[in-house]
Amino acid sequence: MNTQFSRRQILAGASSVITLPYMSSLFAATVAAPVPPRRLVFLNTGFGVSKEFFPNVADTGKSYALPKAMEALTKHREHFSFLSNLSNIASLRVNPHWGATTFLTSSDPQPILGQGFHNSISCDQVAAQFIGKTNRYPSIELTTSDTAGKGKGLSLAWDANGESLYGEADPLKIFHRLFASQSSSIDSTRNKIRRERSILDATLLDAKSLSNQLNTNDKAKTEQYFSLIRKIEKNLAREEQWMNSPKPKAPFAAPASGLTGTPGALMMFDLMTAALQSDTTRVFTYQLPLASLLDEFAQETGDSVAAHRMTHYGSTETKEYQALLWRDKKLCQLFAALIDKLNKVIEVDGSTLLDNTLIVMGSDIRTGHMRKNVPILLAGGRAGKIQQGQHLAYRQNESRLSDLWLSMLHFAGCPVEKFADSTGGFSNLFI
Question: Are 274 and 386 within one domain?
Fold first, then answer.
């Protein structure tokens, strides 16, 4: 029996109320099957990790022994790899308490007149320029209300001008940003944009009227302010552009406001999964919680440990070290939960959302306040023939994290030859 229908036959019923899922057996071999998009997710832990987070540097390959802190990832070892001895070489002089500031920029931030601190563009924003152009949101920045271990920046993301992008810490606000509200309409959205643009115009007019009275230093600060206004205007224009395209319906109920710690991270992962699945965005950054996780440690053990104190643990017998190890185990549990969520979503070609997404979790700090040979977990990406399930140990003190960022950009289809101080990417992992 011949089951090779023409595309015309399949599309003839396109006006029917019920839409069939994609079924590869109904399409002739000459019709190309849909290919899922590639996505990128970047997670940062803030301060570094315990010694028991790292595999033995000499124990490499696929049969390496999982370290104690990573036991929660045992069932997922075929889905992720541990990359040892990577460093952001250019940012080794950066404040040793900043685990996030230069994580995705691989840069040496320099002061600029009127601004002081000034970063460079982050890897996620390079990706957003290429793979996010057709999405409602080119990228989405998530963060936490915790400040410990992060350093400067409102999120992990930095734009082409080296300015920090705002990150949202409340899962409820992200929920409303992603999904349609029953009370929303095109008219109400249009009126909202008009009000916000009117306020923006008035603010811009006031700022311009002052600019001629300012000295050079203050003019530089004003230009930074104008840049922020231009960003807001750009966001309003994009919102207006998408006004007639309805947001997807929420796949679950709205979360409680202000969720933090483990519940907050798990909800962020649910929102992330839904947004990637609906192709609302293809690029996420998320600053993982820290202080709120230590609050959970205190509730569980009765030992209260401050986040910074945790990094000065002394011996492995101290409560500070036990808090650090507990935090590391929790991070691996959360990482396993995200892998689970993405691996359960089936794409149009039969692959999974995890297969088409690369997720990295790590920090710009190793342990204590050391900035060399930092911890990096990389999961997913099988659709790009990523060779997962192994421990790869690169040359100590000289292997660049920017080469990983470059390889991830290539996985996503970004036509870039270099990122920051990269030297060529990783052929032993990305083939």
Answer: yes
Q: How many CA atoms lie less than 13 Å away from 123 in the CB half-sphere?
A: 35
Residue 18: what pLDDT? 35
**Tens digits of residue pLDDT in 319-335:** 999 999 999 999 999 99
| Domain count of the fold of the chain | 2
Q: Which two tokens stand for residue 7?
A: 């595309």
Residues 6+ apart with CB under 8 A from 31: 7
How far is residue 201's CA from residue 161's CA, in Å, rounded to a whole number?
A: 22
Using alpha carbons, select from 216, 189, 201, 353 the residue that is nearest to residue 277.
Answer: 353
Check residue 6 and give its pLDDT.
Answer: 42
Domain that holds residue 207: 181-246
Give a yes or no: residue 8 inside a domain: no
pTM for this entry = 0.85
Question: 392, 412 in Cβ contact below 8 A?
Answer: no
Which among 31, 30, 12 is positioned nearest to 20, based on CA atoms?
A: 12
Same domain membership, residue 365 and residue 255: yes
Say how far apart CA 151 and CA 119 lie, in whole Å.
Answer: 12
The rounded distance, in Å, linking the Cα atoms of 212 and 81 is 56
Same domain, 174 and 219: no
Give me the residue label for tokens 């036991």: 71
Query: Helix 291-301 vs helix 261-277: angle between axes, to the nearest 10 degrees?
Result: 130
CA distance 308 to 290: 10
CA distance 359 to 39: 9
Max distance between CA atoms of the chain, in angstroms, equals 82
pLDDT given at position 55 = 97
Report the distance separating Cα 342 and Cα 355, nearest Å. Answer: 8
DSSP secondary structure letter of residue 104: T
The answer on 319 and 208 residing in a single domain is no
Instruction: Name the phi and psi angles at 42, rounded to 5.
Output: -120, 120
DSSP SS3 for 118: coil
Is 50 exceeded by the pLDDT of residue 19? no
Q: Residue 79's pLDDT is what?
A: 98
Q: What is the pLDDT of residue 14?
A: 35
Mean pLDDT of the chain: 86
Task: Give dist(CA 16, CA 353) in Å, integer.
Answer: 28
As a whole number of angstroms, the distance between CA 415 and CA 418 comes to: 9
Specify the higher pLDDT residue, 136 or 229: 136
